[in-house]
Each structure stands twice: as structure tokens, then as C-alpha cells.
Amino acid sequence: MLKTQVNDIDLAYEDRGKGDVLVLLHGLGSTKKDWDAQVPFFSKTHRVITVDLRGHGESSKPQDAYSVELMTEDIKQLLDQLNIKKATIIGFSMGGAVAFEMAAQHPEYLDNLVIVNSGPDFNNMGEIGEDLLKSRTTFLENKGLDALSKEISFNMFPEDHQTELRNEFEIRCKNNDYNAYYKSFVTLMAWGLGDRIKEITTRTLVIASDMDYTPVAFKEEYINRMQNATLAVIKNSRHGVVLDQPDAFNLELQKFLKA
Contact, 201 vs 213, CB < 8 A? Predict the structure, then answer.
């Protein structure tokens, strides 16, 4: 693991392989370990950088400095420090919000954009978003992070054969700092691209699971507002597709990168 100071925090990251650069951004409450099934596969052909976003993993956990915009600036400064001029930015869930913001604010850094079970407007998801914000904050305040970690992990990996994935993810989630998790969540739910999505010209792949929290139709709707985006749907998968269907995910991403 490597660390560097960016944007007034210490950012933990790993840097494997050589070639065109892939930057992999994890989901809320997790770490760069979300990508354990991707790093060995893609580092054979690419330079693969995985990051612990601020407030997560081994990166700094400030008291109040949380937002998608701050996380995006962290990634931009990391690329500058590593002298990386172009990269494919791949974001899963919350990481997808950071990837979207990077494409909107700093398109000159992107070769490609890959969005995984995420969306462009967490602040405008209608009833799904309102229910998620209310239920999760209430759950956190009343039952705590340990109980929430157990519930999230079971919802992501409910099958009998997924016990190991479930337990590993639950441990990762439990290890979060409560304040960092809470503020990452509420600032994420306040973020949205709005009409800026129409201005993104970067070649984009959206990967959706057929059993994600938000339906495939949700992804189809925002893809139709983009200039250069395509959709791949992975079957028999829930929110954590990079973990529960890694082979199918890797093949879709590889196909996109080779095209």
C-alpha cells in the first residue's frame, strides 16, 4: 500500500501493472478491496490504480470535509502527483458518483468512463432516494454501524454460497469510522450532476446488474441523456457485481476497453 498527501489529506492507494491507466473507485463504506477480483486480471495488460476514498480504508478521516466534489479533487490531485495525463475512470456505486463528477469537471483526464451500479443524481432519485436517506440515517442513529453493516452485507450477498463474500464485506463495513461513514453518506445523497450529464462527451460504459437496488430502466433513462454511452447488463447479480459476478464483469469491461 502507498500513501500520498492530496487536498489536505493522506490518500491510500495501490499501483499495479503497466500500460494504459485504469483508476478504480470503490463504493460507500468499503475500500479498494472491492476490486480484488479485477486487479490481478487487468494489471496483466494495464496500469491499475485502486484508491481508498477519503474517510475510508487507510485514507484520512477528517471531521467534516466530505463531499463528492472533494473526493473528485482528491483523485485529480493524485493523477497529477503520479504524472498521469489520461486514465479510464471506473466507479462502483459511490465511486460512480466520483467518476461522473470527474468526467463533468475534468474531461481532459479521461480516456473512458465506466459507471457500475450507480447514477448521476443521488439527490434526485425520487421515492427510492428519499426512502434510502431516511431509512439508513434512522437505522444508523438507532441501531449503529455494526447492525447496518450486517443488513447491507446480507442484502448484497444473500445466497448460501455467498457466505464468505457476505462476511468479508460486513467486516469491511464495520471497520468504518462512524462519523466518516455518516458524512460520506449524507453528502453523497445531496450530490447530483443535473443537466451537466448532457455535456459529458467521454466514451462511457454503464454496467448494471439485473437485481440491483435501482432497476435497469433507471440506467437506461440516464444513458439516453448522454452523448456517448452504452449499457451492459449482467444477469444473476446484485449491487456488488464486481464481487458477486467478477468473471462476467471483467469480460464486459475488457470488451469495452478493447473496442
Answer: no
pLDDT confidence of residue 152: 94
Name the one residue in this structure whose C-alpha cell is 455535456.
Answer: 199
* Secondary structure (3-state) at 26: coil
Res. 136 pLDDT band, cuts 50 70 90? confident
d(CA 219, CA 207): 9
Contact 226, 76 (CB under 8 A): no
Q: How many domains does the chain have?
A: 1
Domain with residue 118: its CATH number is: 3.40.50.1820
Q: Which residue has the higher pLDDT, 118 or 136?
A: 118
The Cα-based distances of 222 to 40, 118, 203 in angstroms read 31, 11, 14
Distance of alpha carbon 257 from alpha carbon 259, whole angstroms = 6
Structural domain boundaries enclosing 41: 2-258
Strands 9-16 and 2-6, bridge-based pairing: antiparallel
Report residue 146 as a C-alpha cell.
455494526
pLDDT digits (tens, 9 = 90+) for 51-79: 999 999 999 999 999 999 999 999 999 99
